[in-house]
Amino acid sequence: MRTLIALFLLINSFAMAQNHIPSELPFKSIPDGGTNYSSANLLVRMIEGAGYRYYWATEGLTADDLAYQPSESGQSVRETLEHIYGLSDIVRNTSMDTVSIRPPANTPADWPTLRMQTLRYLEDATKQLKNKSPEELAALEIVFVRGGKQSTFPLWNMINGPISDIIYHTGQIVSFRRTNGNPLPKGVNVFTGRTKA
User: Does the residue 149 lie in any domain?
Assistant: First the structure.
């Protein structure tokens, strides 16, 4: 009887936990920007734009797409997505005033988790940065630790570094999947941040 009760409680706990997990990934669309054009909110919008592009560039990728490699010496789509994950880790860590260990320690092994975690890291960054004052932004730095050595860079480098790099490599994913016969879903509009069904 105790085993049955324990099993019931375990199943009930799992079911309740599932109800608290958002079923939809972030950046399916870009939220309205509002009217506050602060430096923090402009930075947030850049990350939202990167997240939207990444969401749709990776929507519906197949195992064949993930294995696609444009040349012998080039990275596969999967390797490029792992690189983007590492960049999203830097963006998130910087927004949270946390050190970025290079290379990242726990890159997810399965594709759905890698995609979800990349999008969640970008979402975390937007939540941390939204409405920060210029003074709060100025206090943020990109801090890397690689092989026991630490290097520090100003927040400016996040714009021309990881954020721009995410957008750049996401464009590669769009190109690679098209070349592999699986083009971007129709209706994606990066200008409006909305996708028509």
Answer: yes
pLDDT tens by residue, the chain, 197 residues:
555 444 444 444 444 444 445 569 999 999 988 888 999 999 999 999 999 999 999 999 999 999 999 999 999 999 999 999 999 999 999 999 999 999 998 999 999 999 999 999 999 999 999 989 999 999 999 999 999 999 999 999 999 999 999 999 999 999 999 999 999 999 999 998 999 87
Dist. CA 62–CA 101, nearest whole Å: 30
Is the pTM for the entire model greater than 0.70?
yes
Residue 20 lies in a domain: no
In a 3-state reduction of DSSP, which class is residue 146? strand
Give me the number of domains the chain comprises. Answer: 1
* DSSP string over 16-30: HHHHTS-SSPTTSSP
Contacts of 191 (CB under 8 A, 6+ apart): none
Sheet order of strands, 100-102 included: 100-102, 141-146, 149-154
Other CB atoms within 10 Å distance of the CB of residue 45? 18
User: Is 18 inside a domain boundary?
Assistant: no
**Contact (Cβ atoms closer than 8 angstroms) between residue 52 and residue 166:** no
Enclosing domain of residue 48:
35-183
